[in-house]
């Protein structure tokens, strides 16, 4: 099977930062996407990376290391409303099917 | 914001009953994906289409599900004989091209099989 792993929970404090980790072991790789999902809502696309290194997109940044099968999503200047589940998904070469992790539930405390 | 429409939002069926859900992709998006998200938040890819043609599907979908994306009509996913293990959130996503990396998700249909 395709393995995409994420920690279940993460807590952080308003105004600081949070790093959401993702490790993957898949039979193919055509990029990695990050989605935000709030309870009872659809996943919302945040970022896509296919090359190694850090991609800075302001509030959200993403890092990828293909040789290590590792990515993280970095949220800076956290706000309470950033509390949500964050899903990483590996995009497969065949028809761009996404294989998702189970998501990390981020709780931002005051 | 995603403009993918899914109906119904909630569906309750008994075991053995048919369960049908629909999806209208974003306008101009020819590629449609169906995923199943269970209570443990685990996603499973079910099937995808480009226009009316099936691109890829898993074994379970081949055997117990029927799906189509007719032209000028909503896409649909139907479970022929529902099982308790089918209780999940069914998410439809569309993409502007098969090479596109963004998938836009609808709000999902939450199926409960009693």
Gist?
The complex is a heterodimer of chains A (110) and B (114). Chain A has 110 residues and is mainly beta.
Structure characterization notes:
- The complex is a heterodimer of chains A (110) and B (114).
- Chain A has no helices and eleven strands.
- Chain A has 110 residues and is mainly β.
- In chain A, strand 6 (53-57) and strand 7 form a beta hairpin.
- In chain A, the strands form two sheets. In chain A, strands 2, 4, 5, 9, 10 and 11 form a six-stranded mixed sheet that branches. Chain A has a five-stranded antiparallel sheet with strand order 1-3-8-7-6, with no helix packed on it.
- Helix content of chain A is 0%, strand content 56%.
- Chain B is mostly beta strands.
- In chain B, 5% of the residues lie in helices and 50% in strands.
- In chain B, the strands form two sheets. In chain B, strands 2, 4, 5, 6, 9, 10 and 11 form a seven-stranded mixed sheet that branches. In chain B, strands 1-3-8-7 form a four-stranded antiparallel sheet.
- The longest helix of chain B is centred in the middle third of the chain and has 6 residues, at 59-64.
- The termini of chain B are far apart.
- Chains A and B meet through strand 5, strand 9 and strand 10 of A and strand 4, strand 5 and strand 10 of B.
């Amino acid at each position: 099977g395709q393995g995409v792993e994420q920690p279940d929970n993460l807590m952080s404090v308003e105004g600081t930062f949070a790093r959401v980790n993702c490790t993957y072991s898949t039979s193919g790789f055509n990029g990695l996407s990050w989605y935000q999902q709030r309870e009872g809502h659809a996943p919302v696309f945040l970022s896509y990376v296919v090359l190694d290194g850090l991609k800075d997109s302001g509030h959200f940044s993403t890092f990828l290391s293909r040789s290590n099968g590792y990515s993280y999503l970095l949220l800076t200047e956290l706000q309470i409303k950033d509390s949500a589940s964050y899903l990483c998904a590996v995009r497969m070469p065949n028809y761009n099917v996404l294989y998702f992790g189970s998501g990390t539930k981020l709780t931002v405390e005051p | 914001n995603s403009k993918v429409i899914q109906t119904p939002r909630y569906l309750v069926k008994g075991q053995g009953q048919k369960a049908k859900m629909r999806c209208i992709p974003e306008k101009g998006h020819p590629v449609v994906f169906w995923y199943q998200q269970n209570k443990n938040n685990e996603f499973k890819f079910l099937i995808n289409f480009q226009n009316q043609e099936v691109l890829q599907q898993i074994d379970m979908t081949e055997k117990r599900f029927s799906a189509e994306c007719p032209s000028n009509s909503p896409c649909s996913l139907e479970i022929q004989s529902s099982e308790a293990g089918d209780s999940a959130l069914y998410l439809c996503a569309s993409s502007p091209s098969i090479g596109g990396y963004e998938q836009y998700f609808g709000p999902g249909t939450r199926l409960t099989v009693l």
